[in-house]
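$ ./design --mode recover --in tokens.txt
reading tokens...
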């Protein structure tokens, strides 16, 4: 058996990091001569370079939007780091390189090259796009490693790589139950609500933005929705049915993660906020069955000047930016009021839309909502997942969502 010649050490790639779908890699860095390329057997994919191999792996997930985007993000980041930062073929990465990359995830530097300005998510077509929005938390670092391990293992199985450089880093599963830390404890959540209540409403645009923000935060918190679920579902998914006692109860059907559907209780408070938002837009107080109106609309979309149902839903990046702006505003307001609150303000500035989902689960558990109710509301597969939201007494008796889970604007 003849071994492949050593790949040359090359200077870092001169271009800025570019999205995977537009990435052009120089021939010397494309991976066709990678040191970790399989030299025996028959490859089961047609890819002859690293970029095509990654695309072959990602093609398995194109029917599941959220999974595809998450997997593409992590593969994209590693490939760009390997080429741009290391000047090295992805298919030549060693175990030591992977350890170095894990350190890079904790603080992507230089920030001007790797991190989007202000931590904002820009569209992939925007020249301001960057692979990162800031340092990754320890849990996000672990998630990235898990995804990349899956990718490397598949490329080995497909006959493209000789070995998985991450396999040496795999850790035994910890038996201690994890606990969610990325959530807003009630007093900080109150700061966010107070900030939303004081948002300016002098102009029509300010008023429209304030109504939209209040409705968006209601959906994310009361419904426990993921931000992708807000953009992917419509108001026509609300429906009403009569329970065994003759009471009419509203529900929201969510098409969510993993192409699964779940029923979210649309409490009286949630329906009141929906009616408030719709009436501001000039729509009927309640949606009609199968109505195509997005759950959250762009500014200026009203019944008087445009059919709301014809509006394109806000992108996940746009929804994320709205939420981050509110958290930043609440943090600034907190600092202005009390210099001693800097630690709490710092926490708010780190928060994202998903923190509201974690906050919803944590607050429901703290208010004695039955864990089975929390599980089904959030769409968890098991109570083991839901138990991460227990922050108070794990043996409390439980109450229903309608009674215990409120936003209380």
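writing sequence...
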């Amino acid at each position: 058996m003849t071994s492949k010649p050593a790949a040359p050490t090359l200077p870092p790639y001169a271009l800025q990091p570019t999205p995977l779908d537009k990435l052009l890699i120089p021939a010397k860095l494309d991976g066709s001569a990678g040191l970790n390329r399989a030299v025996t057997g028959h490859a089961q994919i047609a890819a002859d370079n690293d970029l095509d191999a990654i695309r072959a792996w990602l093609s398995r997930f194109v029917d599941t939007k959220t999974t595809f985007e998450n997997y593409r993000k992590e593969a994209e980041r590693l490939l760009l780091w390997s080429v741009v930062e290391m000047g090295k073929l992805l298919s030549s990465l060693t175990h030591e390189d992977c350890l170095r990359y894990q350190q890079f995830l904790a603080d992507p530097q230089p920030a001007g090259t790797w991190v989007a300005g202000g931590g904002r998510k820009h569209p992939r077509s925007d020249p301001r796009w960057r692979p990162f929005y800031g340092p990754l938390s320890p849990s996000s670092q672990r998630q990235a490693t898990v995804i990349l391990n899956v990718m490397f293992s598949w490329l080995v199985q497909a006959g493209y790589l000789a070995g998985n450089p991450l396999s040496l880093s795999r850790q035994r599963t910890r038996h201690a139950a994890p606990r969610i830390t990325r959530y807003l404890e009630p007093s900080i959540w109150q700061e966010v609500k107070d900030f939303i209540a004081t948002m300016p409403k002098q102009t029509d645009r300010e008023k429209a933005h304030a109504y939209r923000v209040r409705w968006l935060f209601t959906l994310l918190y009361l419904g426990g929705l993921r931000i992708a679920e807000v953009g992917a579902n419509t108001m026509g998914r609300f429906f009403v049915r009569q329970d065994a006692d003759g009471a009419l109860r509203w529900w929201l059907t969510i098409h969510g993660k993993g192409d699964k559907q779940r029923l979210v209780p649309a409490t009286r408070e949630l329906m009141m906020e929906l009616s408030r938002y719709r009436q501001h837009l000039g729509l009927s107080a309640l949606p009609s069955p199968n109505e195509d109106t997005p759950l959250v609309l762009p500014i200026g979309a009203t019944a008087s000047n445009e059919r709301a149902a014809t509006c394109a839903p806000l992108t996940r990046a746009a929804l994320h930016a709205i939420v981050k702006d509110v958290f930043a505003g609440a943090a600034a307001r907190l600092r202005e009021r009390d210099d001693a609150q800097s630690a709490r303000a710092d926490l708010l500035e780190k928060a994202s839309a998903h923190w509201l989902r974690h906050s919803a689960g944590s607050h429901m558990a703290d208010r004695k909502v039955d864990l089975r109710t929390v599980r089904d509301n959030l769409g968890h597969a098991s109570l083991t997942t839901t138990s991460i939201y227990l922050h108070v007494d794990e043996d409390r008796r439980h109450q229903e969502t309608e009674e215990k889970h409120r936003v209380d604007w």
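exit 0
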